[in-house]
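Field reference: sequence -> structure
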Amino acid sequence: EDFHFVARPDALAFRDGTVFDLGGGVRIRVLHAPGHTRGHSFFWIEPDDVLYLGDIDLSSFGPYYGDAWSDLGDFERSLARLRHEEAIWYATFHHIGVLKGQEAFLERLDRFTAKIQQRESRLIGFLAEPHSLEEVAAHRFIYRPGDNVPWAESTERRSMAMHIERLVETGRVAEVEPGRWRRVSN
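Structure field:
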């Protein structure tokens, strides 16, 4: 109701590898790329050799994985897969627009991807002392502390929870009391 959604009875499901033939030699091939959301996909437009990246926007903000259906591991695997897709043109949904050539694309992709590790490194540093997820979210690892974004707190909480979970699984962070984590000293 909030978004005036009306179901489309003619909507068609698609999956990785689906090809849409638009006629006149124009085809669009789907590459499933989960992480940002479960259904996030890239679309390869032929014969113009345009790889549409959707919400892999290559901006300095970095990857957004704060959606309710985001998955950090899937996002990283999708970004790694993307490194091996060579096109003439790379188009983002917002911010950067269109890039020509793989070299320019890979330069942006590397900076974009590096944000994940930068955030995680900052989180490990912050967890030199025990903190709750609420304290981690309030510290702001995704958004700048002064950014007045209504969804920042929920995004920070979901995103950093994924980082904490991974850091616990790899033994780099431990839950030192219920709901409070600290990095493990080496």
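Note: The radius of gyration is 19 Å.
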